[in-house]
Amino acid sequence: MTHHDQDFAQRRAGAAAPPPFEFRVKGRRLVSTDTQPVDLATVNGLKTGEIIAGALPFEDSHPARLWRGMVQEKPDITSPMLPDYRWILRTEPEGTDYIRAVQQAVGQMQASNLQKVVLARTLLARADRNIDLPALLTRLAADENATAFLVQLSAQTWLVGATPELLVETSGRTIRSFPLAGSLPRQADAQADRTAEKSLQASVKDLHEHRFVVEHIMDTLAPHCTDLRAPDGTATTSTRTMWHLGTRIAGVLKADGPSSLELAQLLHPTPAVCGVPRAAAMDVIRRSEPVRRDYYAGCVGWCDGRGDGAWHVSIRCAEVSGRDARLYAGAGIVAQSDPQSELVETRAKFGALLAALGCEITVHKDI
Ligand SMILES: C=C(O[C@@H]1C=C(C(=O)O)C=C[C@H]1O)C(=O)O
């Protein structure tokens, strides 16, 4: 038996527990070294080579989930093979209730100063045996345009996903952000896929949705930078399942500027996951989403003792516990939104996780 097979066989027997955190970023792995959680202040006492990493919640009512760890250049050897699970799926809220919430939000936009709100729904997927988290992470990491992450939230629960959205990254005084907003599902046919990309690029509604996010990030970062630029025009970017509008923001931090962790806290929640104005959008989210977001639409990432690090928006993810996965997906709603299209967009956003779980979305068309 090779080391690789042994590792897989052990895990199938349930011997190896998932680590408290692991990130996969373009061939590098960020791995936990301690099994005891740490708090935000731990960042001040880190030794060279150490990081803290984990998840920040959508709302402050939940604590940060952080652990100490290190960056490894070693590639991963975990097998991407999964057992052939049988699935039971249930959406929460049901599609009709999600559509009603979108209609109400659009109505509120006509009668108030609410301009954008991101409304999410969830999909409960129950397998016939425990979900193999390390294999799931390896499968999610196959998408080169996403950062795959696994973060322990409680004794039995992990947040796992693959996000394409970079909230903020700093290295010395160099700062970057890659906000996304405005989406269309990818198409299997190459010609149809290209048409989808072009129509997204030309969509006034999506460009409008996108602009809120770029403005928020520029306004929040500007006081901390000596130089900050967003390119003219918005580009498209893709994952294996979605097209998005994205803007590559780059700049130079002031000397003794905030750490990557502090910047993530300043920026969060952006209008990519909350809305404009923020307080009104938060109010709509709290009133119309029946399932609390917990760590979905928060941040996942890492920071070292000098403040360098990267924080991503925790989207395209699920909370996994034993046989159960709760998948989350949201869509930005503006006055011109069509509720049925927003439902389809959230369904497509479940696609990355479902594919990684080996659950065929085409078999479950009604989600
Ligand atoms: C909220 C999600 O995605 C966000 C919303 C987007 C949109 O509304 O177009 C696009 C990318 C993300 O910023 C999600 O995937 O759950």
UniProtKB/TrEMBL annotation:
A Gene Ontology BP annotation from the UniProt entry: salicylic acid biosynthetic process
Signal peptide: none
InterPro entries: ADC_synthase, Chorismate_C, IsoChor_synthase
Reactions it catalyzes: chorismate = isochorismate
Positions of transmembrane segments: none
Its EC number(s): 5.4.4.2
Enzyme class: isomerase
Keyword Isomerase part of the UniProt annotation: yes
Chorismate-utilising enzyme C-terminal domain: residues covered: 96-349
Alphabetized UniProt keyword annotations: Isomerase, Plasmid
GO terms of molecular function: isochorismate synthase activity
A Pfam family: Chorismate_bind
UniProt record similarity statement: Belongs to the isochorismate synthase family.
Name the UniProt record assigns to this protein: isochorismate synthase
